[in-house]
Amino acid sequence: MLTRLAAETRADDAAASRRRVAWLGRQAEEEATLGGVLLDLSERARPIAVQTASGRVHRGWVEAVGEDFVAVRTESGTDALVRFDGVGSVRSQPGGAITTGDRPLVVDASLVTVLRSLGPWRPRLVLCTGPKAEAVAGELRWVGADVTAIRLDGGGGLAYVPLAAISEVYAADRLIE
Length: 177
What we know:
Helix content: 25-40%
Number of strands: 10
């Protein structure tokens, strides 16, 4: 009788433990954020594909996650910076642990902050402003309070792009070291 009671108690404890694990998993999923998912994928060094709202696909690895953007080191070795509101979807390769992203971001860099830090180096960038807008390509000249200036390729003039309109940035050279 005591053996049967002990076995029933162990079975009840195991069932309660499984319910607790399932509940914690559901809770983690409900608290997930895009930034948290991207951080998890970055720590696992999982290859991803970021489909943007404009239809571009950046395949590679998460290099950094900021307050409002993800930096993807592409398969070709360049960086693509995609603002979260410009992300259509993020796909990871099959296999591995499930990523829930249920933790707060602990970063203090925004896409605008990164662009400002690049100013002195005058990199050649492509700025994309949305699904219907034309991409602006050229040398970064300066970043102001709410606008940036790009010297257009081919000896063209300057293009002024509102910072709030930029959904993604990519370059021929590495942006993040």
